[in-house]
Design goal:
The protein has about 350 residues and is of the alpha/beta class. Helices cover about 30% and strands about 15% of the residues. The chain is built from eleven helices and twelve strands. The protein has helices at about 60-70, 90-100, 120-130, 145-150, 155-170, 190-200, 225-235, 300-305, 310-320, 330, 345; strands at about 25, 75-80, 110-115, 135-140, 175-180, 205-210, 240, 250-255, 260-265, 280, 285-290, 300. It has a twelve-stranded mixed β-sheet with strand order 7-8-9-6-5-4-3-2-1-10-11-12. Helix 1 (about 60-70) links the parallel strand 1 (about 25) and strand 2. Helix 1 packs parallel to helix 2 (about 90-100) and helix 1 crosses helix 9. The chain is globular. The chain starts with about 20 loop residues before the first strand and ends with a helix. The mean pLDDT is about 95. Bound molecules: S-adenosylmethionine. S-adenosylmethionine binds next to strand 3, strand 5 and helix 11. S-adenosylmethionine binds near residues 114, 115, 138, 207 and 345.
Length: about 350
């Protein structure tokens, strides 16, 4: 395959495994108001933890310039993340800048955001007005005791549910819900969450607990495998596998046979999907990561803050993608568990 003809036949660089670059996840802050035990445990990320100083975080104009460069190279989906993206001041202003970007063929971008939902009641409307299309909200349980322990700050379920209601009312639909499943911690929430999602008309996605970063003390025996999740849900309501919506979709899709909608299962650990991974990630400080499990990023902020032209910026990004060969999840083993890795909140989840 020629490096500039990708697996979907559209223009853009193709990496060493033939993968196109289609999704860009942009972290707008490394800060978060939650202290989820599997992501930013409070024992590690306490009061005196040194988050990035403001001048090291990309400005909105820098993020927009980067996004334009990526879109010029074939990206058609932008996901805003963090840390918690809604803690970034004036976020709707950034959304408006990104919503104005068009693909080379003039088409609209897919523009979405992942949030813990805690600030959605106030922000859902302004985000829609700015051009945001959809949101994914993270929620690990409907049980306050379980959720409060997992989010690390006893944040109440009701406030996240209210944020989800606000997103639906504002038209940020279909709302997707991310639930990280940890053996022995929130397994009892698997079926109640599905029952709620079916009723509320949201798409629930179960995420296998991943070994991102090094702070969460990850162990394989805490992962509830995708196959077991399918069995548990299927025992409550019959389901069948559905075709992926597009190549590179992260979640395996399952449809309820009774028209109760669908669920997704993100099985990075037991059924890796590296071969279809079309995602690039930009951290809040402007590093480009070509894998969620990468040990190092490429400093794009230095280029943005130099006198490099847009064409030079694009060439750097294109070269990085052409050289990409990451497939950590396919290689995961006891030996890889000790390799250096960046924390997910720092890279942008
Ligand atoms: N703060 C936002 C949120 O809560 O959705 C966005 C950032 S968060 C890092 C993005 C997603 O990563 C969340 O759905 C979170 O549950 C998930 N996540 C974080 N650490 C994880 C881990 N170790 N394994 C699986 N998913 C994880």
């Amino acid at each position: 395959m020629d490096a500039l003809t990708t697996f979907d036949g559209r223009p853009g660089p193709s990496d060493t495994l033939g993968r196109a670059m289609r999704d860009l996840r942009i972290s707008v802050t490394d800060r978060c108001n939650f202290r989820c035990t599997y992501c930013m445990p409070k024992e590690v990320f306490g009061r005196d933890y040194a988050f990035l100083p403001r001048d090291q975080v990309l400005r909105f104009e820098e993020i927009e310039r980067l996004a334009r460069a990526f879109v010029g190279l074939g990206v058609d989906k932008l996901r805003i993340t963090g840390g918690e993206p809604l803690v970034r001041r004036d976020l709707p202003d950034l959304i408006a800048m990104l919503a104005a970007i068009r693909r080379p063929d003039g088409g609209l971008l897919d523009l979405t955001l992942t949030t813990n939902g805690s600030a959605l009641r106030g922000l859902a409307g302004p985000l829609v007005d700015a051009g945001l299309q959809r949101v994914t909200v993270s929620l690990d349980s409907l049980d306050d005791e379980v959720f409060g322990a997992m989010n690390g700050i006893d944040f109440p379920v009701a406030k996240v549910l209210d944020g989800i209601d606000a997103a639906i009312e504002a038209g940020l639909t279909p709302v997707k819900i991310n639930m990280v499943v940890r053996r022995g911690i929130n397994e009892s929430s698997i079926v109640p969450m599905a029952a709620w999602a079916r009723k509320r008309g949201v798409i629930l996605r179960y995420i296998e607990y991943m070994d991102v970063g090094h702070s969460n003390g990850w162990r394989l025996d805490e992962v509830v495998p995708a196959a077991e999740l399918v069995e548990t849900i299927g025992a409550a309501w019959p389901i069948e596998a559905a075709e992926p919506a597009y190549r590179g979709e992260v979640a395996g899709r399952w449809r309820y046979l009774d028209d109760g909608g669908e669920i997704g299962i993100i099985s990075s650990v037991t059924q890796p999907f590296c071969r279809d991974c079309t995602r690039a990630r930009i951290s809040a400080e402007g590093k480009l990561y070509t894998c969620l499990f990468a040990a190092e990023g490429h400093d794009l902020r230095a280029i943005l803050r130099s006198d490099a032209s847009d064409a030079e910026l694009s060439t750097v990004i294109e070269r990085i993608w052409l050289a990409r060969g990451d497939r950590y999840s396919e290689l995961r083993s006891a030996a890889t568990s000790t390799l250096p890795r960046i924390e997910m909140f720092a890279m942008g989840g």
